[in-house]
Amino acid sequence: xxxxxxxxxxxxxxxxxxxxxxxxxxxxxxxxxxxxxxxxxxxxxxxxxxxxxxxxxxxxxxxxxxxxxxxxxxxxxxxxxxxxxxxxxxxxxxxxxxxxxxxxxxxxxxxxxxxxxxxxxxxxxxxxxxxxxxxxxxxxxxxxxxxxxxxxxxxxxxxxxxxxxxxxxxxxxxxxxxxxxxxxxxxxxxxxxxxxxxxxxxxxxxxxxxxxxxxxxxxxxxxxxxxxxxxxxxxxxxxxxxxxxxxxxxxxxxxxxxxxxxxxxxxxxxxxxxxxxxxxxxxxxxxxxxxxxxxxxxxxxxxxxxxxxxxxxxxxxxxxxxxxxxxxxxxxxxxxxxxxxxxxxxxxxxxxxxxxxxxxxxxxxxxxxxxxxxxxxxxxxxxxxxxxxxxxxxxxxxxxxxxxxxxxxxxxxxxxxxxxxxxxxxxxxxxxxxxxxxxxxxxxxxxxxxxx
Length: 452
Prior knowledge:
Number of domains: 1
Structural class: alpha+beta
Number of helices: 19
């Protein structure tokens, strides 16, 4: 397959099924395998119709750039994010157009570099404390451990509080939400979500659990009037200059808090889980990482100022997110038709691009299933198209917390890998669970061994 974008034929290739619901069912059953099959059979631009709507899948970096940047204004969020409003409300992930841009400007100061560095100390402190529970030789579910750790970090940086007492409730609610993908891709889910059926009732209960906790934090902070230097303080103080200095009400702050909990907790936990799984299979890479940590840190815990010097740790994390991207696909709905690559994208069509497919494309990443952090040297990066790797998306909806996530991922990896080695447990089932993020289906059981 050529690395150049091929001009599209008049009829874009793709499956032509008499059973128009079959692609829906295939995507619901195993979206990763289905996209792999479509890419292999039809190339970089695939289209089909299902349940009366046109669907386009874009698998070339130039097409991804066109979708996320060039024609960003022609799109709204995709089906899953639209259905996610039932939990997320009108936060940064789900809001649209001018309101989305205003909210992004209001939240941006919370993610300025100096403020992120300030969060780094709390990240490491919580990571070091979390590992005190571990013992040499024990088997742990790394995924559960990373979920607990990253939730504690979100609690500290967002609310300046210990959320451990609420973490079980928050975790259960977010777990319910993660399975929304399976419901949202069903035909007519926008109608189904108005009916009192089990998935809808579970979603409503999950939202109620989150609301009780988050509104409590907001009310307590409003009463105290404290500025604790956390994200919640910034949200409460943020003024929209375009709206005469108007501030966000409790409902909007709630929506942004839920969005930040989800985005700052789930994705980082998954990235670290898959990273430790890969290091368990590649002891030589783990040894090289440990050498860098010894050289940079000596016998102390990492600090935010170490982050720029932990180059190999960042390369390991980058390669892990290439193989197991926490966000495995991006979907949009066309709101204004346009033409690109010789194809007309009509209004109401669904357009998808996939980190899972592009990150594993041998044209950009030779021997793509091999775990090789050396792909992330400056020289190797320079030889690839920019959009051959986009773990945090791009364009107006690029993850606002990307800098936060990189610092958190690298510092937590450094904190853990300087203390522990990991190995696979025989007969452990490791399977992918592509819901809204890419989770391990049965958790991730790994054996711990204390570094000497």
